[in-house]
Amino acid sequence: MKNMWIGVASLLIHFLASCGGSPAGRIELKLVWGCDPSFDEASAGVTEWCLYMFSTGGSLLEIKCGRDLSALEIAVEPDLQTVVPALEGLDATRTPLLRGVGLPVRLSEGDEYEVRIPLAPVGQTMAISGIGGSCGILPHAVAHSPALVMPSGHVLVPGTPDPAANPAEAALVIDPVTYDFFKLATPPSMVRMGHAAVVAGRTGVAVFGGRSSAQPEGMDSVAVLRNGEAFGDPYDPAADYGSAFFEESNPLLEKRTGVQAAVFYGNQVLVYDGQSPPEMWYADREESEYLQSAGPDDAFPATIGNIAPSVMAVSEDVAALAGGVKDHQGLLAVQPGAAIAGYVNFDVADA
User: Fold this and answer.
1) What are the C-alpha distances in Å from 140 to residues 127, 233, 244, 259?
2) Which of 255, 149, 254, 142 is nearest to 198 (CA)?
3) What is the C-alpha to C-alpha distance for residues 337 and 347, in angstroms, rounded to an integer?
4) CA atoms within 13 A on the CB side of 177
5) Burial tier of 286 (Cβ tally within 10 Å: 0-12, 13-18, 19+)
6) Is the Cβ–Cβ distance between 14 and 110 less than 8 Å?
7) CA dihedral in degrees (156, 251, 319, 268; nearest 10)?
8) For the chain, which domains are there?
9) Rounded to 5 degrees, what are φ and ψ at 40?
10) How far apart, in Å, are the Cα atoms of 138 and each of 6, 39, 211, 309?
11) CA of 48: how far to CAs of 75, 84, 88, in Å?
12) pTM confidence score
């Protein structure tokens, strides 16, 4: 990750007033490039550029293609919606060579936005890191994989859905000073996606559930980080961070995919998926118990498509709960050292 990204072009998106007519606002897209080869070399085979506007649900709203990248403009009707801009560079056979996707933008009349889109060669995975950052090609894909910021400043990405990845080295770490990547040793089960990962305790990292091509119905696997004490201290250039490794631990009580996890008291982890009964995992003994609820039986309502309700810890012992088919919301109070949770201020969400 030695190459600083550079700006390569700017594109304009106009969005119209709800009644049509003249533009009511604009989005300026800043295309950035920071990978080898150079942008000029990588785009030499591009004969046409296509600018897309998607809804957050993935529906295509508008498309505009042309040979001149800098001349591309597109207009969209706002309808108070959030849009996701994307760009592709196509060759003479209309095969994508370069691709980039921007962050979602909420359209509002009268506003102007600037959105950066990092471009990368299709078929390669790029990471942008740091302010003014740098970029490099990841050794394997990390889609649908969680990322953790450790106390040392390192970014840890445990697990990969890439079947071509080396299962013995399926965890990536980004150094916060050099921006270089290195890999950690892992058990074969770390080739997975849709899993959850948390920092539990001062240095402990645990990875829960997910699915793989071999176990599409879900996994009960738990992998924990060993020899990772250095990640719990301020950055030390002399520390041997690469000696840490993941090891398979006791399994969960249920196979889970689309997993979410929330940490309480530093070492209790609520693990759930919206499908099976939630369980509480204890970092000190690396095993779990089914959660006992002191409240409504449907506090964790069944969901559709493996989408779990959202739980976000707001203090050591309380978390906010929202979502699920019934749009529940409330506060979840967890007892220390026990798999017991009570629900307060429980109601139906407004939206």
Assistant:
1) 11, 28, 19, 22
2) 149
3) 27
4) 6
5) middle
6) no
7) -90
8) 3-121 (2.60.40), 138-348 (2.120.10.80)
9) -60, -40
10) 19, 18, 21, 31
11) 19, 20, 8
12) 0.69
115 contacts 29 by C-beta, under 8 angstroms: yes
d(CA 147, CA 170) in angstroms, rounded, equals: 13
Mean pLDDT of 89-112: 84
Q: What number of other Cβ atoms are within 10 A of residue 197's Cβ?
A: 23
The per-residue pLDDT for range 7-57, each reduced to its tens digit, is: 445 555 555 444 445 555 677 788 887 666 778 888 899 999 998 888 877
The two three-digit tokens of residue 279, written as one number: 């369980």
DSSP 285: T
Q: What is the DSSP string of 223-282?
A: EEEES-GGGGSS--TTS-GGG-EEEE-PPPSS-BSS-EEEEETTTEEEEE-SSSPPEEEE
Q: How far apart are CA 345 and CA 314, in angstroms?
A: 15
- Determine the residue type at 251: P
Q: Kindly provide the b/e burial profile for residues 91-103, where b requires at least 16 CB atoms within 10 angstroms of the residue's own CB.
A: eeeeeebbbbbbe
